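User: Before I run my own analysis I want an independent prediction to cross-check against. Here's the chain; please return only the structure tokens and, at the end, one sentence I can use as a sanity check.
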Amino acid sequence: MQLPDYATLKTEFADHVLTVTLNRPEVRNALNTQMGRDLGDLWTRLTADAGEIRVVILTGAGDAAFCAGGDLKERNGMTDEQWQRQHEIFERAFWSEMDCPVPIVAAVNGHAYGGGLEFVLAADFAYGARTARFALTEVSIGIMPGGGGTQNLPRAVGERRAKELILTARPFSADEALQWGVLNRVCASSELMPAAMETARAIAANAPLSVRQAKKSIHYGLQGDLATGLRFEIEAYNRLVPTEDRREGIRAFNEKRKPVFRGR
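Assistant: Structure tokens:
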């Protein structure tokens, strides 16, 4: 698919993997109104028709920061109404990321504070550079997490630890993020993108419809009780039975060759 030239994002596509870079390095990739619009547009496009894109890697420009959170210089002097209108743009960006059917791997190259950490938590999973630090600092400036932080952080680290981190606004290290479940892997900075790309390509090599249905089953199944989740899983499974990818996978297995999946 053809993506527009975004003002605040850099996109690169190869081997079914779309790399999306938050591209405001002069302000530590802080989230401003335009970035909110750009991200909302990107995730909405991928939800409507991902084309040949099977996996997304989300990272930040430069080595210092993945995303420093909201651009407080842009917000300085906003009226209450302007602030709330901007935040609605941010809400759509976060929620459309969580609803995106294409797997999203966050490659956290530097600090992820406030909304930056919420982008990480909205991804399907995350790898991080050892030098990265994380925090939800909103209560220290008179607001609170509003991009899913109060919901996604407890789901990753547990309720009691999430309360400690959010209510103190205390930063934590990449090693702590790994130990607590925010990160899946910690890498040297030079190894972060190769590791994320290796995993993305492994996902992209699988049947794309199967990957998306499995992601959907995990995501939505966990929102309810076990019995409802199991029923959702079977509904998702049955949608794959009449697909050409299912037939190709079985043919390839019996013919002892690598399958060629077309996403149909």
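Sanity check: The beta strands are 9-14, 17-22, 55-60, 65-67, 104-108, 111-113, 125-129, 133-135, 172-173, 185-187.
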